[in-house]
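Can't paste images in this forum, so I'm doing it all in text. The chain is below; anyone willing to post the predicted structure tokens underneath?
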Amino acid sequence: MKIFRFFLLALSLMIVLPGVQAQKAKNSSKKGKGNYTYDITFNIKGATDTVVYLTLNYDGKLMLRDSAGPSSPGVYHFRSNKKTEMGFYTLVAQKRVQYASFVIDKIPFEMVMNMDTTSNPELITVQKSPENEIIIDFQKRTAKAQREISEINKAKKFAENKGLTDSVEVYNKKMEVVDKEMKDYINQLIENYPNYLFVKMQKAFTQFDVPEFKDADGNMDNEARAAYYRTHYWDNFDLGDGRMVFMPVMQNKVKEYFERVLQYQEVDTINKYVDMVLEKCTDTLTYQYMINYLSHHYESSKNLGHDGVFIHIAKNNQLKGKCFWMDEELIGLYRQRVERQEPLLIGQHGKELLIPDTSDNWHSSHALPKDYVILWFFDPDCPECRKETKKLRKLYDSLQTAGTRNFDVFAIANDCTPERWKRYVKEEGHPWLVVGGNKGNIDYLDAYNTYETGNPSMFILNKKRDIICNKRIPIEMIPTFLEQYEKIEANKQKRAGN
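Text version of the structure:
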């Protein structure tokens, strides 16, 4: 049984200490003038470290925030009057092992922690910080529950090997009791200390019940349940508390929601929930974290249509002056990105290209007879272009022979001299239309942004010559893609009652 895994996530982070040099660290215990932001003492029985590190959790890593040498044997004192983030911290030993984890829940912050080098929570005591006393108690209860589960599991496996099914059931119930006791304990923490940062993290880990929606025929409506889950996913997570950015739960919840729960939703649906989440980020830290994550995730995503989510985010946030931390140069890059990409999003009408062939006869990308048109931008001297074009030729010929070819190819030879282009066309003898050179009704390289995407580039247009694919997909997947597109369109028509 997978019990307590989520309870312990906060205690199992990878240690990353950027910029830590081999030389002895500067002791932060020197008292400065003025008010302090934190004053923390660790009394570590048996510690011989010449330096220990104070690290902050961020995005699944521990970032170095301070270091200190011993003020006396086993005593390490951290004091600072510099700006300090509130969140989940870990004291890391000289040999990169974790001594203890705690939260800085307010500024100024003061704490004394007594422990030994084993980091056994049973031997840890805390003074001057009630919230961190709760954390130590939580660790003690979790360790106890783990021991109980381990003992029950051993007995259960023995019973299974002996074929004692009744005993196995008894042990399963015992594990359920331990699990319930731990959950009840956490629920009591949530009720008694709702504003404690560590308790907010535990609440964020808790699951919520999804109602059993039924359709008109009385069957389970899984789509309604999924929509409820998407809508209420953040109910137990306080996105209005900026301290949560520096808690281990943040990265995991964000990645699960956008990279699993919403991964294969339609663009309009993703945009709806992106807006919903950003509206909940009433604190500037959570808003900044979410904007940075979402912008990078959807701009770099390989999923078709996700560039549309990126454009939606940029237009409604970066380009509306909401991202105060970005300078004008960066905002200008976002504006340029939107201007170049928005006309090429899926659903936009593809710009018509009028370009001559090798005989100087002009052709329109929109006047071809088949329902679908593949715009194929290539360079005759590009090895990748030649390899992919051969694959396209093989697919084209096989579908032509089978009588199932439902697309035309409008191939545009770009980034080459007319002589090379014409020689290539003569040598290859492709069955589709090949145009190119430096003539055209518009700058076709700019119109389809191939200056950035490079060669080869692919766009697929439907019967209305709207863009339905704006990036290169595996050639062999083109028939499947078109088949799925037609099914999706048929379902849309059905839902619309047409």
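The CA atoms of residues 413 and 436 lie 5 Å apart. The longest helix spans residues 130-161.
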